Amino acid sequence: MPAYRKIIIFCAVILAGAALLSRWPAASERDVWRVLVGAFPGKISVDNAHISSAYYILRQTHEPVLRKDDGQNYTSKIMERWSHTLDYTGYEFCPKEQLNFDDRNAFTKELFYDHISAITKKYDAGAQLKYSDGCTMVRFKAPAKGYLEYLTLYENSPTKPVGDSYELGLGPYFVSYSGDDRIELSRKNYLRGAYSTIVLYLYKDVSDPKLQDRGIADFNLIPSVDVPGWVKETYRSFDNVELKTVNLIINHPNPAARRLIRNCLDAEAFRRAYSPRKTDFIDIKTVFPMGLTGAKAGLPEQSCDRRMFGVSLSTPIIFLNNRDDNDAQMAVLSKDFLAKTGIRFNVVKFPPEQMRAVKGQRPRPYNLIVIVIDATTPDHGAFFGPFLDPSGYQDFNSAVLRGLYAELTKTDELSLRAEISEKMLVELDRQNVVLPLYQISSKLYYPKGIKNINVGRGFLQYPEVGEFRL
C-alpha cells in the first residue's frame, strides 16, 4: 500500500476516534456527577433532612446508624456488630474502627457513645446508656421496637458541624465547597469506576442555560415540566409518585378572610392557572400525599357561601407568584375572583431566590403563597412543619396544633399517629390556613449506561451516587 494511503487511513481513524470521544466529556470530567437543584437548603445539616435538597446531599455525605434498604431487614455500614434483646428493651452497638468525617476529623467509639446518648434521650428521656470496651449498651424500661426505625433516619445520623453552612458525616463524600450557586462534594477515598465528585448547581428558571448543559446528569430536583426535551429523548425514564404535595398557604390575619379564600378560591381553577403547562394532577383532599396513612383522594371540600362575601378588607389580597410562565392565567383568575367575591386579588411577581429574605420579614408581605410540602420518608409530622415553624410562611400558629404535634412525636404506634394526625388535619381546616392543590407525580430521568441504579423505595429520587458505576 502506498505510504500516502496509509497516512490517509491513519488520519481517518484518528478523526473517527476523536468524533466518538467528543460525544463524551473528557476523561477527568466523566467521573463528575452534576445535578441541577431547584433550591439549596439554608444549611446542609441533619436538622434539615426533611428538605429535599438537603436530604439529597445527606444521602451522599452521611450514614445513619442503621439501614433498612429492602424495607424489612436492618443492617449497618458503620457497626462492627449490633444486637437487641428479644423484647426490644436492650440494645448493643459496637462501631467499626477507623471511621472518619474527613481526613482531619476521626469518628471514635467515644464520639459514637456521645452521639447515641444524645439522640436516644430525645427518643426516650428515661433510657439508660453504658459504655464498655468500645461498645454502647442501651436499656429501655419498656419494649422499644420503634427505636430501630428511629436509627435509620438521616436526621439521627452521626454528624459534625463545620462553620455555619454545612456538616460532615460518615458517608462516602464530604462537602468541599458551599456557595450561593454551587455546592461540591468530594469522595473521601478514590474508587475506580465510581464518581469522584458531585456538583450541585442552583437552578434559576426556564431561561437557565444549564438546561442545555449536556454535562448535567440529574435534573430530578427541578420542576418536572422544566426538564428539557433532549433529556426526555435520550435518558432512561422511570415513573415516580412522590411524597410531595403542592399547597396554597393562606396567611391573612382576618379569620373571615381566610375562610372566604379557603372556600371561594376554586382549587382546580387555581392550580391550572398557577401551573399552566401541567396537564396531569393527582387530587388530594388534605396536605397528605397518597401513600401516607390518612391521605384522602379527591379535591378538597369547598363551600362558597355568598354570606362570606360580606367581609370588609381595607387592602387587596396579595398573592406572591414565583413563576414567570403564568401571568396571563393569573390575571384572569384575579379578575374572576373579584367578580365573584368583590375582593381585590393582586398578583405580585417574586423571584424564588429572594424567598428566604421575605420569610424573615414580620409581618410577611403576602397573604397567599404556593409551597411544596414533602417528606423523605412516610412521616406524618413532616406535613405539619410549615404550620409550626415560627420562621415558616405564616404570621401566626395554632396552640392546638402545637399540642397535638407534641403528642405525635411521643408515639411510635401507627394507629395512634394516624388518629392524632387526623385531629391535626381538622385543626388546619378549622383555621383555614391552607388549600391543598395536588400531589406531585413525575418521571425521573437518568443517563443511559449507569450501573447500580436502584429502583424503588425512594432510591431513584434520592440516589446514593456513591453506589453508581460508570
Relevant terms:
globular; alpha+beta; 5-stranded mixed sheet; 470 residues; D-Maltodextrin-Binding Protein, domain 2; 26% helix; 11 helices; 3 domains; Dipeptide-binding Protein, domain 3; Dipeptide-binding Protein, domain 1
Characterization of the model:
The strands form five sheets. The chain has a five-stranded mixed beta sheet with strand order 10-11-12-1-13, with helices on one face. It starts with a helix and ends in a 24-residue tail after the last strand. It is built from eleven helices and 18 strands. β2 and β3 form a beta hairpin. The N terminus is likely disordered. The protein folds into three domains: 125 residues, D-Maltodextrin-Binding Protein, domain 2 (3-Layer(aba) Sandwich); 88 residues, Dipeptide-binding Protein, Domain 1 (Dipeptide-binding Protein, domain 1, Alpha-Beta Complex); 200 residues, Dipeptide-binding Protein, domain 3, CATH 3.10.105.10.
What's the CATH class of the largest domain, please? Alpha Beta
Q: Tell me the helix content.
A: 25-40%
Q: What is the fourth-level CATH superfamily of the largest domain?
A: Dipeptide-binding Protein, Domain 3
CATH fold type of the largest domain: Dipeptide-binding Protein, domain 3
SSE sequence, one letter per element: HEHEEEEHEEHEEEEEEHEHHEHEHEHHE
Counted by DSSP, the helix tally is 11
Number of strands: 18
**Spans with pLDDT under 50 lasting ≥5 residues?**
3-27
Count of the separate structural domains: 3
What proportion of the residues form beta strands (DSSP E)?
Answer: 15-25%
Instruction: Give the helix/strand class.
Output: alpha+beta
Spatial order of strands in the largest sheet: 10-11-12-1-13
CATH architecture assignment name of the largest domain: Roll
* Average pLDDT level: 88
Global morphology: globular
What would you report as the Rg, rounded to the nearest angstrom?
26 Å
Largest sheet: 5 strands, mixed
Q: How far apart lie the N and C ends?
A: 40 Å
